[in-house]
Amino acid sequence: MKLEVDISGNTDIYGIFGYPVKHSKSPQFQTSAFSYLNIPAVYLPFEVKPEDLEKAVESIKVLGIKGVNITVPHKEEVIKYLNEVSEEVKYIKACNTIKNIDGYLIGYNTDAEGFITGLKQLIPNLEGKKVLVLGAGGASRAIIYSLIKEGVDKIYQANRTLGKVFKIIEDFKPLTKFIEEIILPISYDKIECCVLPYVDIIVNTTSVGLNEEDKPLFDYSKIEKKHIVIDIIYKKTPLLKAAENKGCQWQDGLPMLLYQGAKAFEIWTGKKAPIDVMKKALLK
Fold first, then answer.
1. What's this model's pTM, rounded to 2 decimal places?
2. pLDDT tens-place string over residues 153-196
3. Which domain holds residue 33?
4. Is residue 281 part of a domain?
5. Is 228 within a domain?
6. 125 and 215: one domain?
7. Are residues 33 and 136 in the same domain?
8. Residue limits of the SDH C-terminal domain (predicted)?
9. What is the pLDDT of residues 42-73, one digit of tens each?
10. By the 8 A CB rule, do 99 and 109 touch?
11. Closest residue by Cα to residue 206 from 245, 180, 232
12. Pair 99, 169 in one domain
């Protein structure tokens, strides 16, 4: 689909702040959505160095930018420069979407909803399910938040530094008094014997698999057909290839990217995002 953007004095500006950011797929599918709904707006990538983040956030107000997405490495640091944040940002401690209302900046995290919307295409009801989450970085916090909200029974969280898992448990205590019964920290060497036989879903939130030479996080041959396997990297990683070979349902990171972007679009515009149009632009 050819994008028709009529630039004028009434054209609104949206964008994404990151460093680096030129590889971002967001400009294509967000601009497609604006064009499809005849919203006079453009979406641009802004490469913002960490030391320039405060000035960049101030420029949202000065230049009248209507909204921005925030990507690495700014999702945590940006919070201190906002006027208000949503509930999920308070728990996840990361913001990926900002809405500008006449110079008043409100921060949101749409990664949580983006992940869960994609996952529910494979398994609509998550209540009572057991999940293995690999990694304890910023992405894992959004994913765990969404899983708890959906009522999963157990989250086995594996990380090389278990202190990060205990920090997540501490931060999420206000979310539910049962948090210490839901999130169970485990080391990677316990996955095959003590976790895989009991979980329904496996989620990789680390960067392992981005490069073909990366060492596996565990023995992928131990994956069973019953497992649903998600990797938030935007390609078919060795983990996903192993899942496919076992006949598992699997999903890469593109649905999460699509649905987090759609939620951001709806926050900014108040209009229902044209998912099919955005998906087509993203896959193209």
1. 0.93
2. 999 999 999 999 999 999 999 999 999 999 999 999 999 999 99
3. 12-109
4. no
5. yes
6. yes
7. no
8. 253-283
9. 999 999 999 999 999 999 999 999 999 999 99
10. no
11. 232
12. no
**pLDDT band at 144; cut points 50, 70, 90:** very high
Assigned token pair, 57: 């956030």
| 19 and 93 share one domain | yes
- Residues in binding site: 24-26, 71, 87, 96, 111, 135-139, 159-164, 232, 234, 253, 260
Q: Is the pLDDT of residue 1 over 80?
A: no
Confidence of residue 4 (pLDDT cuts 50, 70, 90): low
Q: How many domains does the chain have?
A: 2
What pLDDT is recorded for position 229?
Answer: 98
Amino acid at 83: N
159 falls within a domain: yes
Residue 102: give its domain's CATH number.
3.40.50.10860
In a domain, 137, yes or no: yes
Active site residues: 75
Cα distance between residue 109 and residue 154, in whole Å: 23
Residues of the binding site for NADP(+): 87, 135-139, 159-164, 232, 253
Q: What's the mean per-residue pLDDT of the chain?
A: 95
Pair 209, 246 in one domain? yes
Tell me the pairing of strands 104-108 and 130-134.
unpaired
Distance CA 94, CA 102 (A): 23
Annotated binding site for shikimate: 24-26, 71, 96, 111, 234, 260
Mean pLDDT for 129-145 is 95
Of 70, 88, 109, at which residue does a domain stop?
Answer: 109
pLDDT of residue 5: 62
Cα–Cα distance between 63 and 133 in angstroms, integer?
40
Judgement on whether residues 213 and 121 belong to the same structural domain of the protein:
yes
Residues 36 and 141 in one domain: no
